[in-house]
Amino acid sequence: MSEFNFADLHGLRALVTGGNRGIGKAIALRLARAGADIMLNYVGSEDEAQAAVAEIEALGVKAACCYADVSDGAQVEQLFATMVQELGGVDILVNNAGITRDALLLRLSEEDFDAVLATNLRGAFLCMKQASKLMMKQRFGRIINISSVVALRGNAGQVNYAASKAGIIGMTKSLAKELASRKVTVNALAPGFIETVMTASLPEAARSKMLESIPAGRIGQPEDVAAAALFLASKEAAYITGQVLRVDGGMAM
Ligand code: NDP
Fold this sequence. Notes:
This protein is α/β, with parallel strands linked by helices. The protein has helices at 22-33, 46-57, 73-87, 110-138, 149-153, 159-179, 197-200, 204-212, 222-233; strands at residues 13-16, 37-42, 63-67, 92-95, 141-146, 184-191, 244-247. NADPH dihydro-nicotinamide-adenine-dinucleotide phosphate (NDP) is lined by residues 17-18, 20-24, 41-44, 69-71, 96-99, 119, 123, 146, 148, 191, 193-194, 196-199.
């Protein structure tokens, strides 16, 4: 009897936006370990992105990266063109790139509201549009959008971020309905408090308070989110679409 190899991604090609660090990098490495070729983009350090590419290639798959701001339509189009040229196509899209610009509403500037919506929501929209064209044609695809528990529970000081992450959920469900008949699934992950650069600046008191609200009794690691992404990217998850999977140690039940 042949061994059942769960979540085998050999022959598939995945784009992980913001895959040069944090949760995105953990997802890229996890998908690569399952056999997928990986494309990354970056807006900050090219060296950091090239280092991530080298780490992924060391796992025995193909990897490439290019500069692309996800909020810019022309750059996203170029990112997908580069991926098709380098890896031959797109089977899995993980919309992970995201930013925060936190402030209480009365101090929240229009600029910071727009910047967060542009990267987190418009960015996901632009990437889904490019990916959908290719995935519909090939009658296969996995789109995984990184939302947040903040979309489900709200968070003081994050009106802009919550709006972007709640918007992601609405887009996920709507596109899931549009693409289901083409064998393309669209799901969202809603991570809780995950240890990355994004959360590193939280003061110790706020951190302890946060920990008290997590039934699992620990802060999440990027690898916890990556494991859920792998499952949704797998062929075995073919009948799961339009869902929001919380990866939060029970925080937002
Ligand atoms: P990081 O700040 O560590 O990483 C963010 C990534 O997004 C970086 O790779 C960054 O690239 C990229 N990025 C930012 N802006 C753009 C842009 N305009 N175009 C392209 N790429 C961009 O964050 P995390 O790893 O913590 O978060 C990853 C995702 O998970 C985000 O969407 C975040 O909102 C979400 N999330 C995080 C949680 C947490 O607790 N950490 C909880 C819930 C959700 P570069 O380095 O080149 O700037």
